[in-house]
Amino acid sequence: MSNASDLLSLEDVHLSPFQKRSMKQILEVYEEKDSFINKSKIQLQEHVDDLLAWVHEVKTPLTAMKLMIEQTNDEKLRKRLESEWVRIHLLLDQQLHHTRLATIEKDNRLEKVILRDVVYKEIREFRSWCLEKGIGFQVEELEQEITTDKKWLAFIVRQILSNAIKYSHENEEVHIYTEINETGHLLLHIKDFGIGINEEDLPRIFQKSYTGTVGRESVQSTGMGLYLAKNAAQKLGILISVKSQVNNGSTFTLQFPQQNEYQKTW
């Protein structure tokens, strides 16, 4: 439909007076609903813009806090403050990407990315948290080059790494390695040896706000990280899967699309 007056004029020669009145009322309702939808879209976009502006405003004092923490002389206190800072930073980061997820297609930028660069940068971001828990990393060379959106891939890796660190026992390692599967796809594995995931929870861990069981309720979790990672990965043509066993850790796997599959994705 274009507008009520155009449609009504088109139907004038075919409608009885009663039908014309009925059609006019129907079209008026349609226009009223169309106007309401447009206003709602504008309000939603304004809300998104306000939320993004708020996130960026909060980043400024957060950066200042980081600098002050680094100047703290009490080493024990500094480590505790740094780990809490990381958690705040992650929550803010999740909110930012949650807001942007709906428009990822407009925001994406495909480029050649060396896997190692993304993974090592994210590991460095978790340095203070890992030091607090005594978590180490065993990482392969990761020299493979892929075509993807670097910022969103970093976000996905960040969510999986934070999950691995959060649910690892103290003084354990996280293993990161790659392989090529039987169909020729590059796989990135992130394996921890922590508390694992209950079998009944596995089909639901990527659902929004789902936090699971097996001791995970005792660890602060919003249940948003894996949900956002899964949705962002789908938009990049990346498949996320997980294998886990209670008290024997979890392995999250990213399967990257081949070059011809990227053409279908975008």
Structure overview:
With 266 residues, the chain is of the alpha+beta class. Helix content is 55%, strand content 15%. It has helices spanning 4-11, 17-70, 75-100, 104-107, 115-125, 127-133, 150-166, 225-235, 259-265; strands at 110-114, 136-139, 145-149, 173-180, 186-191, 239-244, 250-255. The chain has a 5-stranded mixed β-sheet with strand order 2-4-5-7-6, with helices on one face. Strand 6 and strand 7 (250-255) form a beta hairpin. It is globular and about 85 Å long. The two termini are 30 Å apart.
What characteristics describe this protein?
single chain, alpha+beta, Heat Shock Protein 90, 7 strands
Helix/strand layout:
Elements lengths: L3 H8 L5 H54 L4 H26 L3 H4 L2 E5 H11 L1 H7 L2 E4 L5 E5 H17 L6 E8 L5 E6 L33 H11 L3 E6 L5 E6 L3 H7 L1
Parallel strand pairs: 2-4
Antiparallel strand pairs: 1-3, 4-5, 5-7, 6-7
Number of helices: 9
- What fraction of residues sit in β-strands? 15-25%
How far apart are the first and last residues' alpha carbons, in Å? 30 Å
Q: Could you please say which CATH topology of the domain at 111-265 applies here?
A: Heat Shock Protein 90
**CA gyration radius, whole angstroms:** 25 Å
Sheet with most strands: 5 strands, mixed
Poorly predicted runs are 215-219
Please state the average pLDDT score: 84
Q: CATH superfamily membership of the domain at 111-265, which one?
A: Histidine kinase-like ATPase, C-terminal domain
Structural class label: alpha+beta
What is the second-level CATH architecture of the domain at 111-265? 2-Layer Sandwich
* Largest beta sheet: strand ordering: 2-4-5-7-6
Shape: globular
The SSE string, one letter per element, is: HHHHEHHEEHEEHEEH
CATH class of the domain at 111-265: Alpha Beta
Instruction: Report the count of strand segments.
Output: 7
Helix fraction, binned, reads: 40-55%
